[in-house]
Design goal:
This protein is α+β, with helices and mostly antiparallel strands. Helices cover about 35% and strands about 20% of the residues.
Length: about 110
Amino acid sequence: ISEIFGENVFHLEVMREYLPGEAYKSMKQAFYEGTRLDRAMADQVASAMKDWAITKGATHYTHWFQPLTGATAEKHDAFFKPVGPGKAIERFDGDLLVQQEPDASS
């Protein structure tokens, strides 16, 4: 089990491989110090995360969270956005990573 544990986690070692140096540094600072990522860095992280996930065979992602209601909730989305009849583009950017409603009220 120890050989496969975490193999599908976008952790700091994976980030080091997929992120540009400045984005990795910002992400590490956010991770350890609780600083916020600016929008440009969030876009870079999202792009790297999408690229990594697609290499793992992912087509969808889940945002799992714990709202203040005491229950858990999750939201499922795809990396693809329809743009016309029979056409789609890959999409996953920083606005999907940034905190929006801290109380998960929607």
